[in-house]
Structures are given as C-alpha cells and as structure tokens.
Amino acid sequence: MDLESVNPELAEIDGQVGDILRALQNGFQKLDKIKDANRRSRQLEELTDKMRDCKRLIKDFERVVKDIAGSTDPDTARMLHDRKQSMIKELNSYVALKKQHASENKRVDLFDGPSVEDGFGEENVMLASNMTNQQLMDQGNQLMDETDQAIARSKQTVQETINVGTETAAALKSQTEQMSRIVNELDSIHFSIKKASQMVKEIGRQVATDRCIMALLFLIVAGVIAIIVVKIVNPQNKNVPNIPGLAPPVSRRLLSIVEDI
C-alpha cells in the first residue's frame, strides 16, 4: 500500500527516514576504510547526528499515525505499525554499529602509537588484543610517564602564569601610587597658581592706589608752585589766596614810614 494514499505527511517522513538510513549505511561502509582515529571520530559524530535526526523523524511518524488512527482500517494500521517497527529496527542496527566503532576508537586512543598524519606508518599501530602483557605494561608505563610530563608542564605553565600575574599586580600598584603622587602634585601646583594669581591681583591694586596718590600729590605740588609763581609775579592779585608761611611783599611806602620813625 502506498503511504501517499494514506497520508501525504507520512509519505514525506518515510522518504526522509529512508534517505537518512541510506546515508547511515554508506557512512558506516566508509568508516570501515578510515584508519586515522581523528577522522573516524569526526565521521562517527556526523553519523550520530544523522541517527538523532532519524529518531526524531520516527517519533513524528508515530505521532501522525496516532492522529489518523481513528480514520484508518485495521490493515492500514497494521501496515503503518510494521513500517515503524522496520525503521526502528534498522536504526537500532546502526546504533549498535556506532557503539562498536566507538569502543574500538577508545581502544585505539588508549594503545595506539602515533597516527599516520604524524609521519609514522600504520605498522606502528597496535591493538590491545594483539599485544602481550609485557607490551601492555610497557605501553601503560609510557603513557603514565607522558601523562606525568604533561602534568609537570601544566604545573610549570600555571606557576609562570601566577608569577606574571604577581608581577603585573605589583606594576599596577606602583603605577597607581605614582599616579596618586602626580595628582597630589597637580593639586599643589593648582593651589600655588591660584595663590599667586591672588597675590598678583593684590599687587596690581596696590600699584594702582600708589599711582593715584602720587598723581594727587603731584597735582597739589603743581598747584602750590603755580600759586607761588603768581604771587611773585603779581603780588596785587586779590584772587590768589595767600599761602600759609609765605609773607606778603613789603611795599616801598611802608618802608619809608618805618625809616621816618
């Protein structure tokens, strides 16, 4: 029975599941030919993603089957059930293959020598099942030594990082103190400039006052000199006031009277 005639959505989901299952089949066939552990891991990850998509589609298939259960006859319902079980069975077979390859990858990661990409041939790759107890012990000891060396390098890196952090913190502290001193000096300079500006203003005011006084004294002295000059030149001028301490000139008539006496 054609699924298109039963439900178009079911037919579409069935086609998508079929495409994914064929892709899984081809992917696992290619996986058997891949020798590099890193490439095998990437291939397994891609196949795992496809299996997740297939599982989701099978759940969608089951959901649609439940939605149309009331409108389908027993034969159609049985056919849909068998189709779902077939998809689940095939997907489970690929899940088992994935687990098998994943376990093989773990053994290869644990007991492999360098990979082909590192410049060594595949003859250096040895599975644990083909190794003697002594080889296993030697390989394990070598891995432990490499792990200890890696841990020692990590500790050294951490210590160097701590030292750099300590030096950086000390440098930052010194720079902070220096900046604080600079700020204090700038405040002191600003205060000195402000004080000097005030003093300049005071001196300017004092100089202006002194100039006014000197100008006034000059005017007084000039006035006194002018009066004296006028009195000497024209002693009969009544408009010119007498200056205290300066006696008026003695007339000739007064002098002749004094002589007669």
UniProtKB/TrEMBL annotation:
GO cellular component, one term: SNARE complex
Xref: InterPro entries: NPSN/SNAP25-like_N_SNARE, Sec20_C, T_SNARE_dom
Coiled coil start-end: 37-64
TM annotation in the entry: 213-233
GO biological process terms on file: protein transport; vesicle fusion
Domain of life: Eukaryota
Alphabetized GO MF terms: SNAP receptor activity; SNARE binding
Compartments where found: Membrane
Chief subcellular location: membrane
SMART domains found in the cross-reference section: t_SNARE
T-SNARE coiled-coil homology domain location: 141-203
Keyword annotations: Coiled coil, Membrane, Protein transport, Transmembrane, Transmembrane helix, Transport
Bilayer topology: Single-pass type IV membrane protein
UniProt family annotation: Belongs to the novel plant SNARE family.
Protein's UniProt name: t-SNARE coiled-coil homology domain-containing protein
Species name: Oryza brachyantha (malo sina)
